Amino acid sequence: MAKKRPQTKAKRPQLDGEIPVVGAREPCPCGSGRRYKACHGRAAAQAVTELVQRPFEGLPGECDWVALRELVPAATVELALKDGLPEGVPSVTLATVLPMAWPALRRDDGSVLLGLQNDTASGDISRDLADTLRRALTAEPGTPVQARRAPADGPRLQDVLAPVGAFEPVVHDGFEFWVPDAQNATPEVSASLERANAAAIPTVKLAGVDAAYWCETPEKNHLRWVMPHEEERLLDALARLHAAGRSSLGEGTRLVGSFRAHGLTVPVWDLPSGVTAQDVEKPAAEFAERLAEALAAEEPLTAEERRARGGLTNRQVTLS
Fold first, then answer.
1. What are residue 241's DSSP bridge partners?
2. Which run of H or of E encompasses 199?
3. Of 34, 240, 244, 289, which has the fewest CB atoms closer than 10 Å, so is most exposed?
4. Which tens digits make up the pLDDT trace of 97-152?
């Protein structure tokens, strides 16, 4: 057999300035003769797909951002931009989801709706949303904004939104906020609204604690509470309370586990079907006080607390 010719790795030509983005199979603009995806496109793809564990970190209301992204069917929030609203844009509103799963919509009056519950092209939801928002601000009134891959060096929401101020979600019973006048909507829009409303799980945001959402399902109700604490410390605190029989929200309720979503932990309680959001307001506030004490504890977990922690960890589900 003929000997294999020793292979040498060709050096990638160096270019000054920005490398333009072209199709993955097209020749790389650097002149190497290689396809873009095998040359300068490789670094760009890695930058785009690298997962950001906490994409909403640093934004006011991080816990509510996570809840609206993963848990709440229908909600809106008015957003404030760092540089103010451009001329011709009376408002910018974050929405959990938009018709046809549009990433964003510029309404006829120039206002902008930004959809949160969409598939994203990169591992950084914040960058994808900021790119969509910037394009929506200049879109023609009355048109949706389509999805695309955000530039790897583009701004993030933290660069675009005002860094201060309240983040106050308004939870809706349905999706009538899609259209300015739902009563006079076309038959097609009315049918779409009817389908969306039928699929939405009734959800209420608690008033007394942050980022806690009650929801109603056919079998039982639940409370899902997005918490900002570091995961390991929070699980220790929940285990202390669980082992001591102090983790419930009243008779018939039970802490059953937690979700992990966008770098935060979301404890979940089962509630009897007759328990409403109003019924758990006071128990949730009292639990918040017990949790603060447990979070401050420094002593090692006891054997019983370790068993309780293991049970909570085994029932943890990662959403994102």
1. none
2. helix 187-199
3. 289
4. 998 889 999 999 999 999 999 988 789 999 999 999 999 999 999 999 998 889 98
